[in-house]
Automatic annotation (TrEMBL):
Native organism taxonomy: Eukaryota, Metazoa, Chordata, Craniata, Vertebrata
Any GO BP: protein deubiquitination
Record's protein name: CYLD hydrolase
Span of domain Peptidase C19 ubiquitin carboxyl-terminal hydrolase: 24-203
GO CC, alphabetical: microtubule; spindle
Membrane-spanning ranges: none
GO molecular function terms attached to this record: cysteine-type deubiquitinase activity
Length: 226
């Protein structure tokens, strides 16, 4: 455990601390969905550090402390989190979430994020989406799309654009944090053998009512064709 707060890793420090054997979050008993989510959310970014400190209205301070002192701080400090620390968190989620399988079964990462962000910490939704004139709030976006034969090894930018287009979705506003679940999870089927991370994500065409230039004349666009 590490009660002293540690900033997220960046650049050369991230490579030095996180690369190699016995690095990352140790897997145990189908914990991969949670390990991958926690590593993505906290190892190299502080955008969700409010989850670790802020006293939200319905915040469970014990879960917040476990997350901060047993998982995030050790990960950033030594690059390693033992499986027992994640199991401690899973036991608390089982107790708070009225779901007995959090300690042994593989879950959808979205289920984990909704439980810890909404029910346990009370964080406001991070995303506002619109589809067919209806708005919905959520904490992460899970990519759903049909198999594209021309996308053999896609990058994240391509997947997000294809998914938004096929689902007729738009972002109502620029999100403070855009958590995206790739179509590469579960034991049985993975749509892509590899996905290239996009280091930047251009959401210009995904925003609702966002002014954009015409691709033909360069003036302000008045029509949009899918």
């Amino acid at each position: 455990q590490s009660p002293v707060s540690v900033p997220p890793l960046s650049n050369e420090a991230a490579v030095r601390v996180l690369q190699g054997r016995m690095k990352g979050i140790q897997g145990h008993c189908n914990s991969c969905y949670m390990d991958a989510a926690l590593f993505s959310l906290f190892s190299c970014t502080s955008v969700l550090d409010s989850m670790l400190f802020k006293p939200f209205p319905v915040c469970d301070r014990n879960v917040q402390r476990i997350l901060r002192e047993e998982i995030v701080n050790p990960l950033r400090k030594t690059g390693f989190v033992r499986a027992g620390s994640v199991m401690h968190l899973r036991e608390q989620l089982t107790e708070k979430g009225q779901c007995s399988s959090f300690t042994n079964a593989e879950k959808d990462p979205e289920e984990f994020l909704n439980l810890i962000m909404h029910q346990i910490l009370g964080i406001e939704p991070l995303l506002r989406l619109q589809s067919g004139g209806q708005e919905q709030d959520c904490y992460c976006y899970q990519i759903f799309m049909d198999k594209q034969e021309d996308l053999v090894v896609p990058d994240v930018q391509q997947l997000v654009e294809h998914s938004f287009l096929s689902s007729d979705l738009k972002l109502v506003e620029i999100p403070s944090c855009f958590i995206i679940q790739m179509p590469r999870f579960g034991k049985e089927y993975k749509m892509f053998s590899k996905i290239i991370p996009s280091l930047e994500l251009d959401i210009t065409d995904l925003l609702l009512d966002s002014p954009r230039e015409c691709c033909l004349c360069g003036d302000l666009a008045t029509l949009e064709c899918s």
